[in-house]
């Protein structure tokens, strides 16, 4: 809040200078984010260029008065400006030692680039000469002046910036100059004259030579920019109220180009690539910040150590005083901010000025090391260390990556559907992928889109590339589940499977050509890209261990194969939350029996086929139970529509008919009979088992025989969880629970072993969520709920995952949604259903186990939501298990923190 | 509750006799439904055969004692039996005037046919001779005796009834008898001897000659039948608790075959076909009830008037005393029961006995007349009259019907998908249907299933028959909307469109063969069936008028065409609740422009095609606005997936490509591009308009230009309601509301007329129901919600309507559901979403208009639910408007009644 001045007037202006500031970090409401931060840095004693902040209350007064600056505050500003001049030995408007200032906006919330900024204010025809003399660099002085005129003309006086660009372009053309750097002092003088003439012509008034007039104009312009369309749109999108207004910060300009005892640079307090505790960064002697950006001169290293690997004298050697001051400031900053900092600094005539400090960006590896080190140094707690890591970043560590420093031949860009990178020969057919893999080749399976029939081929491939489908298309989901890199929806590629070609613009790639894909970026390259292998450091293990100690929710994995299960256990999975039995059905040697079962004329025929499937399915489960060694496994009964298993192309149908000794027409008739308008909403899930209980019986027998065998072998108690999919009505659950119980009882009797087991259901339909109390309640209700948020999202939103990609991209464009609802759960819609289902289920059965097995189980934002509604576990694909462990820990820490704050509001 | 007797013992037995009864209609808990009703009839003074009821408490005691009758109550029974004998001048076990009784079960809730009954109890080797002497009909007496032995042997002694049937069959075969009626007294005597031998052999004990022993055995058997599997299943399905138990009623048998002054008959107090107030029915002199059923003798009319049209002497003439007594009793019954009664009576030796009275079944026409007359006679109120009509019965009146009295050649049975009947030539192609219609032929369109491309053909046909699809398949929904009779899902038919044949078993029907379908029963006949035309009586109008006065909800119609709109207004629709603009798109002369629009390369191309559609769409709307003359019309923006409009067969695709001057491959590519895995969850609804706002602009322009033109023409103020379909997010609504507002403003400016309008949305996705407050709230939220319960059912249940038929039939079989959720709303699932949507929407916007436009809008049970949650209106297909008006009135009356009861619980 604004403090009344001694004479009762409100305080309009808050000054800051090294070692002292009016206001501090907690006054962003009044001073804006920037002003508050500068005040804090100043209070810390950092050598920030002095300045002052004009409060948001002045902004209010400005608009209340009809876009007029209150006269009363001008004297305060002039006084503050004098104090600034004293600090830097300069004076505003002075010909000899002119004080130049920047004028910037500063809202309570960050609105990067949305409002206006003016630099070098205070230059005029006279002070520019002073600056030239002072710096000994006339060219720099006049270039600065023309920049200021241009900026001021555009922002304050409303002269179209095109006018200035035209003048400069014309001048360069007339004089044969290519770059701005070709222009000398004289050239800039001429341009300045033209600029001033343009302003007088367009604006009707000359460019103001009175530096005070310049200042009032600039302050008013910044205030007015609060209502520019760019800023208004930004506020609407980010729910920032109009009446917050903006503060204005006026700060002395400092120059790193005043000779050899001046410099400018950027530094990190620790190594942002490795996380090592060492000063890292670069500087340019006798230069301004723009010179670094322009890239004309090669920056030099900061430290002697750094100079061993890079050319040029280090700052440490060239300006030991400034360097030592910088080093001390870095320690101070880390102690204050408790994090690695990214600092911009300028040395002006030997004096160090800190322009900005903020948390530094870093690689995942560095993030882990810094967090662990900061905790070891006592600067942060373990909980804080956990919170410092962005969970999705871990992906980088778990997969090989394409070396970003190498040159690659980019041919297309799709969606980063499954992380990791791979190089291999193009193949267009799944069978070919398997055949080539058998020969030891690395292949990339390239398809317009994939279907369940491609699963074996995807497994055989080192990577998958599709032209159609989104982040949650079949290709993407299966690839993530398998841990295969995948780029999906690379829409510019034209894939002709029958011709065996892939067109990328004018280029044509054929079967056998080598390409590389980067599933973390969606990029596709011609040829073999240079790879970086995955590396899991000790700090990774430390952070995971801390996370496991902090989280409440268990983390399971979605795994259908021994390979997935092993991978997931390596990554720390605490069980299998979803084992999809149908994936097993597609494997060679089984699919034929599955097809025989589907095409059977009667129950007897089905039973014959099921008898063939029983031993293979049992063997699959047995291996899974052995690998998971007593950890819980939720096995879902057959779910997908049966026609997914049948051949849809004539050639294949003929082969299958021959193999089954079946009339081709009858096979085709069965395929046609099972075809559906909307298979997602069709004959699938529990509907299959209710119609053909013999399928359920076979699966349950396989599960229990496998469980008992595995238990005998490993000595670990096994407790199978049998999951009934796609339930909407309690009675569906009852019908199948009875089949399960009868079969399980029979197996236990036959084998003479009793094992405890649970029967639960997937909650993946809105009706199931609403009727959760029915489904869990009473005797023999569901023992567990596993929320199938993929299908729940499809049904709640009325959006087919396989058809969603073009719709979602249009919706992202129109800001209907901000994130893909198949990636991050739609909390307010789908999330409410999960919440309702959990609450009602638990009200009916307090010890109901609840978890999630949709794609959202591996998404940190979604995991935070699941923590907030108290689910017992999340289950995700193997490669997301570490991410989920970390995200679950963060969610739990934040929830505890929030609970603590609620419990003791007075403490805060 | 059982009253203690004077000596403190519980009262086990409640007697009844004409003019007096212990207990009454309100004691069903103790006496069972039957016992309570008999008590009530007796109390009224009706001449019911005397008897007594053994309470459910005896049943409890029976089971508590291990299936033993309490000794204490036997004396009471024998005393009651003596009293009964006194009343009818007979004695239990007496050789001369034997009292025969029936022993029947009677539960608190009706459980028809689930438990056991024994007739003619009291016959033995001696009393049968007395009965023979008394009736002068030995054959009758011995036939009755052998029936009793058979029934008793089966029910009480547990002898397999097959044993008795074998004896009878053998006897008939040996003696060359064809029918039971061929057997004389001697034959029955022989059979009785064989029956008794069979019992002694199977049961190990002789058939009991002691009539008391017979009675105790029969009572115990009835009690035991409470736990027979049939009864247990029935109770489970109807939630009847096991511990209710059953009462047992013992009642004197009376005989209408004791000579010429005896008779038996059935009468209605009013004419059940026409509703006329006249005694209606028939009787047989000197006969038992079985004789009427056996159909050997032709019954005679009751009244002299009836005798004018039927052969035989009337009861009125033959037995004037009994007839007059009957007439007085009928008046008394109607005054007491306030309804037309169906009465069974017997005259025994000149004395009239009433065996049963209940509300009589009647035709719809009679139901209307009786209700109106009873109200006019002051016997019931108008509200009660309204409640007396089963709304769905009205369907019979609104469509022609197949004459049930004529013989027809039934060839298949499907679902009664759209009521009414039709005869016509078989056609298999929609184009052929149109061509033949143009030649004046009546055709039945026969398809495996229909798609939107068939709409014109369906319109041209007089009826539709499909082999696939349920009550809410495309064929069914469109047919109901059009008022075309439809039989869907006639699964035994094999339709081969290319061969032009329909196989029904071994019979083959070809194009041009005449068939008839009855959409009210699902029956399909070969040849032209005899039809009854629809007739709307004055009483229909009266009931509708009363209903309109009683209901709270408005009734609108779903209508897309002027024909539908006119029909619906005739049936009393108060507006259009759903006008689907896409149906207009399929009409000839438009579909090409629609296809051009869909296949356009860019917005400009789309706009060119839309410019062609604008005038036709405007003309459609204009006619609708004129017909509805100021009544509200909700127009839904384009909803279905675009590929529904494109040709899918090669031949048609080539034609379309030629007509559009478009490359065939490009057309096919576009078709492929728009194809979706799950079109129901795909690129449709508001997603179309957000991607292609120019389509929305065209439609909105057409709506507003039409509205202003119609307003000018009719002078009636028009207030269009523009409906945005398939909304899940508020922002979708906002994006399209802006397009609508801008276009509507432009039209109003252009035409210089301002008209008020509303913009609302269909709530047809679970997310929309949950986020209803977002969608309705704040400035420019939705002005109305129309619940699209078809799609809401599909998404909430995860069940595609077009694929549901086989799943639902399996579910009905397994009792997962009791009614098709697409016909009657799933209250506990989908209904909760409608309720949530209504509550949250109204909380955010109190004056939000709410209605329903799914198929459920025409279903009485669903309408009752919509009344209970306070929707403002329902909208249904034109032919269901009268049904909805009546159902809405009934729902409102019941709701008011319930509210009244809640308000004054003490009164009741």
From TrEMBL, chains A, B:
Keywords: ATP-binding, Kinase, Magnesium, Metal-binding, Nucleotide-binding, Pyruvate, Transferase. Catalyzes the reversible phosphorylation of pyruvate and phosphate. This is Pyruvate, phosphate dikinase. Its EC number is 2.7.9.1. It comes from Hyphomicrobium denitrificans 1NES1. InterPro entries: ATP_grasp_subdomain_1, PEP-util_enz_mobile_dom, PEP_util_AS, PEP_util_C, PEP_util_CS, Phosphohistidine_dom_sf, PPDK_AMP/ATP-bd, Pyruvate_phosphate_dikinase. The active site is at 474 (tele-phosphohistidine intermediate), 853 (proton donor). Pfam families: PEP-utilizers (PF00391), PEP-utilizers_C (PF02896), PPDK_N (PF01326). Belongs to the PEP-utilizing enzyme family. Mg(2+) binds at residues 764, 791.
